[in-house]
Amino acid sequence: MDVFSDLKLGKGLSGVLGLDAMQRADRVTITFPRPRSGGEISFGPASESSTPADAELPFSLVGNHIFVRGHVNGQPITFLVDSGSRETYVAPWFAAKAGIKLEPGSIRAAGLDGTIIETRSGTADQLKLGNRTFPDARLRIADIPVLANFGLQKTGAILGNDFLQRLAKLEIDFVHRTLRLFVQRN
Asked: What would the pLDDT profile of 93-136 be if each residue is shown by its tens digit?
């Protein structure tokens, strides 16, 4: 059970820990919750980790957002890393180009600002970040207004919490502008 599943805006949620606050630390480590345990966020120096990462990749900061480059089904894409997004999204144009398998029907989704968008579900054979390939990546296909603000309406995506939950841990090194991904071990 997600330790925060009972929180709703205005009902126990005091605020959002944004990147503007996180950047005050050299490194932020997010450990994702597993069944019967809680997640954790810690702040510290940008020292070398004693554990080798499963993937390490550079990131860019634009407007207090983290962007990384990756591939979906071999097609290059720029991801906005957004732990606040429940799901990972790609644009319809990109989904067609990358050969993402679409499921029938559509679902309405609301952003944090309340904007309703029509989405479709799909699966990519692979999503690649750094040197790590993740098979069978579930995606939502939709036009995402925030990506248009960065000129990424076709070639951008949101890397959401559904993908991040596949990880055991994520380290954000602001000094070296590097993301370090640690995959969950079974």
From this structure: 999 999 999 998 888 887 666 778 889 999 999 999 999 999 99
Query: CA 159 → CA 12, 50, 163, distances in Å?
Result: 26, 26, 7
Secondary structure of 81-104 in HEC code, one letter for each residue: ECCCCCCCEECHHHHHHHCCEECC
**Structural domain boundaries, residue 87:** 8-47+55-183
C-alpha dihedral sign at 20, 24, 26, 28: negative
Whole-prediction pTM value? 0.83
Nearest to 46, CA basis, from 31, 26, 18: 26
Residue 56 to residue 157: CA distance in whole angstroms? 19
Is residue 1 included in any domain, yes or no? Answer: no
Both tokens of residue 156?
Answer: 């951008």
| Interatomic CA distance for residues 43 and 25, integer angstroms | 6
Q: What three-state secondary structure class fits 186?
A: coil
Q: Which tokens in the block code for residue 131?
A: 């040197």
Rounded Cα–Cα distance for residues 184 and 3 (Å): 18
